[in-house]
Design a protein that fits this description.
The protein is built from 14 helices and 13 strands. It is α/β, with parallel strands linked by helices. It folds into two domains: about 20-55 and about 300-400, Aspartate Aminotransferase, domain 1 (Alpha-Beta Complex), CATH 3.90.1150; about 70-300, Aspartate Aminotransferase, domain 2 (3-Layer(aba) Sandwich), CATH 3.40.640.10. Helix 9 (about 195-210) links the parallel strand 5 (about 180-185) and strand 6. The protein is globular. The structure holds pyridoxal-5'-phosphate. Pyridoxal-5'-phosphate (PLP) binds near residues 112 and 188.
Amino acid sequence: MAFNPGLSSPDWRARLSTEAAAAPASGIAEVMRHGFGRSGIIPLWVGEGDQPTPAFLCKAAAAALARGETFYMPQAGLVELRSALAAYHDRLYGGLFGAPFRAERFFATGSGMQAIQIAIRLAAGAGDEVIVPTPAWPNFAAAVGVAGASARQVPLHFAATGWHLDLDDVERSIGPRTRALFLNSPSNPTGWTASEAELSAILNLCRRYGLWIIADEVYSRFTYDAARRSTPSLHSIIATHDRVLFVNTFSKNWAMTGWRIGWIEAPEALGPPIENLIQYSTSGVAVFMQRAAVLALTQGEAALAALVERSRAGRDIVIGALARLPGIEFAPPGAFYLFFRVAGVSDSTSFASTLIRQANVGLAPGSAFGLGGEGFFRLCFARDPNDLRAACGRLADWMAARSPS
Ligand SMILES: Cc1ncc(COP(=O)(O)O)c(C=O)c1O
């Protein structure tokens, strides 16, 4: 006898909200499910490195718990965290609008993903549109859909010299219900990184049409240009009236993907709606995580530099190995991903699944990243150099074995 006949009846799905029923499964998670837990698999499919969180951050969180910091806290985040975020941004960008960053611009969130959700909900609602340049991390478009709006995908153009966002394509996709542009630079998965001139052109276009920019600069510290501390940022060019919502996270810079803590940065005047959206979702971030986050911002530069260095070494290994393989093409990588095309592949999901079964290497299929992604694969190189060498070797052997000649 069924425990709950209501749940097993054929129409339970029809009783879901439209947005919940329409939320797509992540194509990355699908492939992971296929290979998760396989013995000997080298998992390069997911957007995280293989290093645990630095011990001094874990200790700070444990000490906060041991001190009894287990109660509700202000919904916008601890004053100490908001001030540390302001000081961190001062060090990176030398202030904003000619003055030091103000703590009141920053709001702690329960992950970068929650910051994205809040930013979308601030800018767009039912029936509205948000432009998403693709290939892109699938969660952007899916979060737009969950908010009742729709994502308008605008494909970047691929060339071996670099991906390119054509602003005429963006302008053509603006309609009467367009509310925002989702701008992820450096991009997951393509590595496309907008120059300051490109950021200015995008900002001007959005100003002309009154669009919000949701700026995801989560990977900005992963710069491989020794002369820079971060990739070009909208922080350096925006004016006080610009509608820009920054979303960010502790996940990547300090190897804290499993913690779930991030932040949203917005004009101070948006404090009340942002705090309300936090209140009615998570009601705030666990205080022990915030204590560790303060330490990451104030004492985490060496740990971050080590992670960037590991990624740089990984990047050089995979570029060197894959550039030699026939039929593989890619633009210079960014963030910590190589996004490469394999000639003749028209079903990257099935290719990635076969690669898992036959070569024990996990890649994310390009089809998961929206328009323009099919035929490509995302490889995360923020990992052990030996694993990366072994994965590239397995891929090369496997491709040679299946090639007709
Ligand atoms: C571009 C980008 N933005 C935001 C996030 C969200 O990070 P998290 O939710 O782990 O803080 C990710 C995670 O992969 C990402 O790749």
